[in-house]
């Protein structure tokens, strides 16, 4: 496996993901499970965050204690489905700023179409975690990362729930400098660009559309 790809295959994540895949799981449960998995994945995605020692006083004595350095983080969901991963991450990194990139995949060409972009003004200084549950052809993620780089972003991680091997390859070819975190790498893409076995259309399942 490529060193830039981490599969976070913790049993809790795999269990929750299996419930999400089930066609009988409704939007409420789907959203809650996605939020829970995002929190669990965030724990691993932030594993290399730096700590520093600061002086504090406990009720017993003064001591040095480890705290996160003032690292600036931006969470950037790819709309719509990426929104479902934001709240879980904000629970663990409450000081993070949130940028939004609106892309939809044209169902005929499978190419991403951009319709919105609003990022924190100091995006170039921030460690960025792009979120999207589905990495299929990789077109949407690669475009979102390019957009971020065009605005000066340097330090970018991509966090997805399920990836197709084709999507991982495409993103790493377009952006060799990024790290990808996924809960599972599925088998392949079908003729309509859907991940097999996958979980269907993540945006539709989160928001109850279709
Ligand atoms: O890797 P790709 O082939 O580009 O496909 C993945 C993209 O497709 C889905 O979004 P969709 O276009 O369905 O938009 P939505 O989130 O608004 O439903 C998904 O959330 C990704 O953004
Ligand atoms: O399987 C897929 C592929 C693209 N987008 C989704 O939501 N699901
Ligand atoms: Mg969709």
Automatic annotation (TrEMBL):
Q: How is the cofactor bound?
A: Binds 1 Mg(2+) ion per subunit. The magnesium is bound as Mg-PRPP.
Keyword Coiled coil listed? The answer is no
Which GO MF terms does the UniProt record name?
GTP binding; magnesium ion binding; uracil phosphoribosyltransferase activity
Pathway of this protein?
Pyrimidine metabolism; UMP biosynthesis via salvage pathway; UMP from uracil: step 1/1
Top-level class of the enzyme under EC nomenclature: transferase
Catalysed reactions listed for this entry: UMP + diphosphate = 5-phospho-alpha-D-ribose 1-diphosphate + uracil
Q: What does this protein do?
A: Catalyzes the conversion of uracil and 5-phospho-alpha-D-ribose 1-diphosphate (PRPP) to UMP and diphosphate.
Spell out the protein name for this chain.
Uracil phosphoribosyltransferase
- Origin organism of this chain? Thermobrachium celere DSM 8682
Please name the gene that encodes this protein.
upp
Any idea where the Phosphoribosyltransferase domain is?
A: 7-209
Which terms in the GO cellular component ontology are assigned?
Answer: cytoplasm
Q: Note the InterPro entries from the entry.
A: PRTase-like, PRTase_dom, Upp_B, UPRT, UPRTase/APRTase
| Keyword entries, A-Z | Allosteric enzyme, Glycosyltransferase, GTP-binding, Magnesium, Nucleotide-binding, Transferase
- Is this entry keyworded GTP-binding? yes
